[in-house]
Amino acid sequence: MLVSKEVIKESGILFGTSGARGLVEQFTANACAAFTHAFITSIQTQFEFQQVAIAIDNRPSSPAMAQACAKAIEQLGLEVIYYGVVPTPALAYVSMQENIPCIMVTGSHIPFDRNGLKFYRPDGEISKADEQAILNATAEFESITDLPVLTVSNKAVSQYIQRYTSLFDSQMLAGKRIGIYEHSSAGRDLYGLLFKALGAEVIALERSDEFVPIDTEAVSDEDKQKAKFWSKEYKLEFIFSTDGDGDRPLVADENGDWLRGDILGLLCADTMNIDALAIPVSCNTAIESCERFNHVTRTKIGSPYVIAEFDVLSKRYDSVAGFEANGGFLLGSDALVNNKAIKALPTRDAVLPALMLLAAAKEKPIYELVNDLPLRFTHSDRIQNFATDKSLDILNKAKDDTSHFLLQLKCDEIEVESIDTTDGLRISLESGNIIHFRPSGNAPELRCYAESSTVDHAIYLVNHALENIQRISC
Question: Which end of the chain is less crowded, N or C, counting CB atoms within 10 A of the terminal residue's CB?
Fold first, then answer.
């Protein structure tokens, strides 16, 4: 017999900001089984269920991982419901309606040589405490020697589409030409169905047979140019895409300009008349300065931290939501859209913010909605293959003497107004500019976020900082 805690430790797989992530070679059949046994046994004392749902993204490694998880579920005497390739929020939503736990096999936006597992209790996404319970579980199980054949159910797709089409008139998007940048997204087969059901003319763009690691917080120059070209070539009024597992949106306006995720989240929450928000510390300060919300709480980066605030806020406010700089929107309470009820979905979702933006755009073009906001612009990028230990060492030293750190980076300004160590090192300068460094929670990367009064200067701050942090780290 194998013991989950020992197998997980030996695998070297760790939890990041959302889910367990690692190299594909680390996710052996027994490692997947160990995580599954640990997850299920850790929640069985809190919930009663006889079924567990599984879904996957389009990574080449995902099907076999799902089969290993399914075998472990069968070892526990439980029934497996397999939804195949669907967006993470679609899996989470249908599972919450069925009151059963689920496992999403996905590495989200990270490269295809990595993968991961996301776990959901019957009441939603697991917490950081749940993660520790999984890592500490000592569930015993038999080694995985054969993998089961899985049959796909379409229920997750149909319920997810119904969740949104039920809120709007069937012709809400009539006359709209919407491009869907499909690449290898887990939701590429359902997004067209959804937008067409609301009356839009849909143009499919660049489907890929190979996995494409789209990062909605660090959109490549190539993808920026593509959106501009597509918008003009196909006379598009909106472009929609997501990351690999369909929980982080990427949308472009009438001019083919991709919107920053936190600006999209702001506009979605405003259109929905949300009272209180929980957002990560890295989000744009326009969220507070626009004065459209009764309360805003800032958290560490990662959906579990945002979700943890929902319990606090829901005691004081009627409607609660959150979103991240990557655009993922989390609905923390039931709400009304067009006087129709929409149930809470406290996990990142890409479709809701896109549809609410399109609803708002019936009154005013998207680019004007963005221009009406306070002039605060953000940009972010990352250094890949940058050891986490190295990042932490640099930032720990920088906290002790931030002005000296800025001098090392050859920054144009070193007058520090304040620093925030909620997550990484966020430096607010007296000029109003902000530079924020943070090691990634799920990959060997150092991320840099910047905010300024112009987009060009925000880009400059990020590029300059990352270039020089590589210099001083050598």
Answer: C
